Amino acid sequence: MPWKPQEVESFEAFVGELTTLMPSTSSANQLYWFRGQRDASWRLESSLRRCLPPRTLSIPRVLEIEEEARMAFRSVAHLFVNPQLLGKVFTTPCWWALMQHHGAPTRLLDWTLSPYVAAYFAVQQRGSEKAGAVWCFCSNILRARAHEIIGSPPDFEAKGAAEWYANQLKELQERQIVLPLEFSMASSERCAAQQGRFTMCFHPLASHDCLIEQTLPNYVRKLTIPNEKKPEFLLRLREMNITGSALFPGVDGLGQSVRELVNLRSHYG
Fold first, then answer.
1. How do residues 123-136 score in pLDDT, each as one tens digit?
2. Closest residue by Cα to residue 185 from 103, 73, 88, 78
3. Which of 5, 158, 195, 243 fits a disulfide with 257 by CB distance 3.0 to 4.6 angstroms?
4. Of 214, 225, 206, which is closest to residue 135 (Cα–Cα)?
């Protein structure tokens, strides 16, 4: 059967679709990662790809800009980032993960282990009146397929890891190969609260949609949530303490949580 998105009409229907995807209810030894997008028409595009003009830059030029951004961040990161965390940042992907959670554009794409955290991002109504979407894929399958092509990467803190990633990123820069990334230490409080994970594509401008074929379509799902159902989802998630203040530690998260409250009050008296 061809791969295609599936609409869920209620929060209960959404939970039902998770039965075969969660470790507690699935009979298979599979671990799914999730991503929420408030517009279901959006592709799985990295912040770097969205930041750069489409189809006007060569790969060498993009790599030059990407490295300049990394060095600009690295040169002053020690003024703001926990020294214990910086002491574990040895490879380029580690720097990208740190940059990603502080708002800098990178080729990485954010995912989470929690479908409910993903749903929260899918039902945000600010800036969109369209259906939202929760993407998910089996990380075990994607990792195995990637390792068949590139071999098994060393641990990020292992000796020689920085050189291995530098070589692979150079050699595979024109290949649309997606690799799931897991780090031994969260890159920020926000990443820890959101149970964050990342995917990285070796082609700096490729959409991560290519993971559909790489993972195999049977192990990828896209659940769409109608726009009119978003307030219901937001309310149900709030009952589970999935709110801005929980997912974005600090006063900015508190402000986001209050925004959600105002939104919900307009729908539920």
1. 986 666 899 999 99
2. 88
3. 243
4. 225
